[in-house]
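Priority: medium. Attachment 1 of 2:
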């Protein structure tokens, strides 16, 4: 069996529908995209770490910090399609897509994804999940949720599970995080698949996989920190960075050191 070479691709674009320009919002003196890139670099298991974008503004910001950028088409509607184009320029067997708004992603959790993919490299698609922490998360449309089986296979993705808010526990419902894994063959196949109704109506990349009846395995992360999809979540992220000791440790590490 060929040894897995797993690259990290961080897709980002300025024209995000819910929060235009968010990759370059300033957080503690760095643009958000650079926070994400530096956190990914703290995980030693990647063969390469690149940002994939169609925007010169993002390219310039990342390169100013010594980062690698792959310029992609401006016609991609879904992040996975952008990652698929970027992958063609990389020497890898697998890719982990770390969305450019996952500013609080923990390096130890990324290691969990790498370990899962390395252990079973023939699985084509993976996605990070985390436990639901409050009823509010079930009806928050900015948070994608999923249903998982006993073997951690993801069965369905959606945005509104508010009808379960009064239940005493939320399993097998999980938050689905913006961290996806693919085998090279799986990602190449993704780009050939027709877009599907749930993918288009809910803007969820993973629905294209599920609606074409392809396996998508979940990897449960220890942390389910929010990304930034809107200004409300930006305020929440800033609050977490102020009060969470582990997040402060990571923040100080990326601010105090030159990572490239």
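Attachment 2 of 2:
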């Amino acid at each position: 069996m060929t040894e897995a070479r797993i690259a990290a691709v961080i897709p980002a674009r300025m024209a995000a529908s819910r929060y235009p320009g968010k990759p370059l919002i300033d957080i503690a003196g760095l643009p958000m995209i650079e926070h994400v890139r530096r956190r990914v670099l703290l995980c030693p298991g990647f063969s390469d770490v690149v940002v994939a974008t169609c925007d010169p503004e993002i390219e310039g910001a990342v390169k100013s910090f010594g980062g690698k950028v792959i310029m992609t088409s401006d016609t991609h509607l879904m992040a996975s399609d952008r990652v698929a184009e970027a992958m063609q320029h990389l020497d890898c067997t697998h890719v982990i897509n770390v969305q450019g708004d996952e500013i609080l992603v923990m390096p130890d959790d990324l290691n969990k994804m790498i370990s899962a993919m390395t252990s079973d490299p023939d699985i084509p698609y993976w996605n990070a999940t985390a436990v639901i922490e409050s009823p509010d998360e079930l009806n928050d449309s900015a948070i994608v949720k999923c249903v998982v089986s006993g073997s951690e296979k993801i069965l369905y993705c959606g945005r509104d599970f508010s009808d379960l808010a009064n239940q005493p526990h939320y399993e097998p419902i999980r938050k689905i995080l913006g961290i996806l894994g693919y085998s090279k063959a799986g990602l190449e196949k993704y780009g050939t698949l027709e877009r599907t109704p749930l993918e288009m109506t809910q803007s969820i990349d993973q629905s294209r996989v599920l609606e074409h009846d392809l396996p998508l395995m979940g990897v449960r992360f220890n942390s389910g920190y929010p990304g930034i999809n809107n200004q409300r979540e930006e305020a929440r992220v800033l609050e977490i960075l102020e009060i969470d000791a582990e997040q402060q440790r990571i923040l100080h590490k990326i601010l105090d050191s030159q990572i490239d």
